[in-house]
Amino acid sequence: MATDKTETEQKPAVVNQQSLEFFEKYINNPSPTGFEWKGQQMWLDYLKPYIDEHFVDNYGTAVGVINPQADYKVVIEAHADEISWFVNYITNDGLIYVIRNGGSDHQIAPSKRVDIHTDNGIVKAVFGWPAIHTRGGEKEEAPTLKNIFLDCGCTTKEEVENLGIHVGCVITYEDEFMVLNDRYYVGRALDNRAGGFMIAEVARLLKENNIKLPFGLYIVNAVQEEIGLRGAEMIAHRIKPNVAIITDVTHDTNTPMINKITQGDLSSGKGPVISYAPAVQNNLNKLLIESAQKAGIPFQRQASSRSTGTDTDAFAYSNDGVPSALISLPLRYMHTTVEMIHKDDVDNVIRLIYESLLNIEAGQDFRYIK
To answer: Where does the chain bind Zn(2+) 1 (predicted)?
Structure first.
């Protein structure tokens, strides 16, 4: 057994049937970068019974607040946006070429079904690809941003435009949520709407357990992480928190073609991942670890070199420096339509954030030298 895991009796699941139903609807709803508002409204509607007030900023970051009058402010945060595509060029014969909106993977695109979002509603399309019979030569051409294209069943540019499609329309995959082997949640955009779900579940547990926090808790679902942590950057300056705990996904490295020497050894089902990086405040990180050990929550460790690549970096370096830490959820097949997360890890991330909040004191100073 790994040294970071504490032997403990099996606890009941945190995620109940009602919350799972919300999770499925939330994942199935598209929330592309820059167009997150429908998902944010859905998230807020779920969160409202568990908070005192809420607000939404100019770009769509949604925030629920518990104990808003408190001077000391603690943030728990995830990001709401998913990778997508933009219509970039429409050919005279009615085919559509695209550019990325976030880190969309061109290699998984061929044969995928998509939704093109227009002012007239959703238009269905597919990423076409030449049949295997027609691809000759010693070296096959691989999918690239220059050769993947959408076919919406039109034969002219005018016909495409008459459907309401224009340059700048956003495109999302239509793949939906499922449960695999009663063990994994599978879907697109688990990176990182799983995080938004988990922080909402923390708020639910606080309410149901009648916990009175000695500080203000800001439950933040930020936009535009996939294009450079932009939503977190904006909201950090608005809230000006004293502490920030961020949750995002990280790679399960125990699937083929991943180098553990460079990516670390992390597995789904073995618990939340606690990160080490310059942006992670060491004393806050120790609080997370001690909270996990005290509560018998299994966890794993990850080293993140120069940056975490998550909203942790945005919060940490805002407002003259905010003590920040990262709790990650192991995920298989990131930025595909079949992202996979383990049910036990979801429960344990929720538990770890919840237990860590119970161990933070109002006015707590995390500096080494005071």
So the answer is: 79, 191, 248
91-105 in b/e burial notation, b at 16+ Cβ within 10 A? eeebbbbbebbbebe
Check whether residue 242 and residue 129 sit in a common domain: no
- Residues tagged active-site: 225
Contact call for residues 62 and 44 (beta carbons, < 8 A): yes
Q: Are residues 206 and 164 in the same domain?
A: no
Share of the chain above pLDDT 90, in %: 93
Residue 191 labeled ligand binder: yes
Q: Which residues contact 22 (CB under 8 A, 6 or more apart)?
A: 46, 197
Residue 204 lies inside a defined structural domain of this protein: yes
- Average pLDDT in the 232-256 region? 98
Cα separation, 315 vs 301, in Å, equals: 21
Structure tokens at 150: 């959408």
Task: Kindly report, residue by residue over 36-76, the tens digit of the pLDDT.
Answer: 999 999 999 999 999 999 999 999 999 999 999 999 999 99
Q: Residue 335 annotated as binding?
A: yes
| Residue-wise pLDDT tens digits, 105-141 | 999 999 999 999 999 999 999 999 999 988 877 788 8
* Residue type for position 356: S
Tell me: is residue 365 an annotated ligand-binding position.
no
Pairwise CA distance, residues 370 & 368, whole Å? 6
Same domain (yes/no): 321, 242: yes
Name the maximum alpha-carbon separation found in the chain. 71
Q: Please report, rounded to a whole number, the percentage of residues in the chain having pLDDT higher than 70.
A: 97
